[in-house]
Amino acid sequence: MLGTDIALDLGTSTVKIFLDGKGIILNEPAITAVNVETDEVVAIGKEAYEMVGRTSDRIKVVRPLCNGVISDFDLAQYLIGAYLKKISGSKLFMPRVVVSVPCQITEVEKRAVVDAISSTGVRKICLIEEPVAAAMGAGVDIARPYGSLVVDIGGGTTDMAVLSLSGIAISRSIKVAGNSFDDAIIKYIRRKYNLIIGQRMAEEAKMAIGCVYPRKDLAKYRVKGRNAMTGLPQWADITVDEMLEALIEPAMQIVRTIQEMLEITPPELMGDVYSDGVILTGGSAQLFGFDTLISKKVKMPVHVADDSEICVALGAGKAIQFIDDMENKEYGVLNPLSAAY
Ligand SMILES: Nc1ncnc2c1ncn2[C@@H]1O[C@H](COP(=O)(O)OP(=O)(O)OP(=O)(O)O)[C@@H](O)[C@H]1O
Ligand SMILES: [Mg+2]
């Protein structure tokens, strides 16, 4: 497999790997479980996710990637190395890598991402800004002199940008996304029922019946946890109306940020965006009613991209073809990649 190029999306919730010529070949939780006594990693990915909220005092669960940047360098390095090994098997593997990074990342944060990857034996690392990758993955032709608005609602951050000519005209990033929705559900259930539930239970309930716009069905979801007063086991059947009540505030924070960004978008680009509408990507774009809510508030059409959760990885994968131009610094090529190391 020597010479095969790959794209990496190091998300807050999941790591996705795209292999050139194959597509997405890995999509696993960005989680490690560590033995606190020996500092050894005992599990990663799906196996570590199973342990969330169920650890003993000897094991702690760590998410080494937070909001697209590295929060624990050694564990991030371990995780990336382990996943690269997993996809390459025992074969010699020295790929060139395109990695997506948030658009408002500092030089130091960029360097940490590059260092964590380069120690795993890759030949070259190119960076692509997340909204650019998200738009490419959603099938937008970003090289045109025409504005497109993409909003990527992930696990840790919502990144949004107006793109034109393969670059970012204007962008915003807020730390309100999937994890904030889970937290909002936990707080709501605690306040209303005196019931303490875990992060995973909240996420399961969100995926089952979550919504940010009124939903007609009468579905309920049973959440189980512990009563805050008595400490005894307790459950509650949560309705879609309660979900809406819990989730509308963080959803509106995202809507307001889109509105603020539109207020300062140059008029020509604004015209383009108004006719084509907003493209939603990221796992949390699948939350029921997000497209309708945004469409009502910003008064333009909104589309959720197909396979929204993997758009960034797909787009970074499509950008692999630009690595050669980056190496040759060919004049006149509008390159969606932003830096090479
Ligand atoms: N059907 C669904 N309904 C609601 N939320 C969902 C659904 N599917 C996935 N999610 C949420 O999407 C989030 C993960 O999305 P994604 O993989 O785009 O994030 P990420 O890339 O890891 O994070 P980030 O881009 O913020 O660093 C999780 O919070 C998950 O709960
Ligand atoms: Mg993401």
What helical percentage do the residues reach?
Answer: 25-40%
As laid out across the biggest beta sheet, the strand order is: 3-2-1-9-10-19
Report, as a whole number of angstroms, the end-to-end distance. 22 Å
Could you say which small molecules are bound to this protein?
A: adenosine-5'-triphosphate, magnesium ion
Q: In CATH terms, what is the fold-level topology of the largest domain?
A: Nucleotidyltransferase, domain 5
H/I helix tally: 11
What is the overall pLDDT average? 92
Helix-strand makeup class: alpha+beta
Tally of discrete structural domains: 3
Strand content: 25-35%
- CATH architectural group of the largest domain: 2-Layer Sandwich
What is the chain-wise order of helices and strands? Answer: EEEEEHEEEHEHEHEEEHEHEEHHEHEHHE
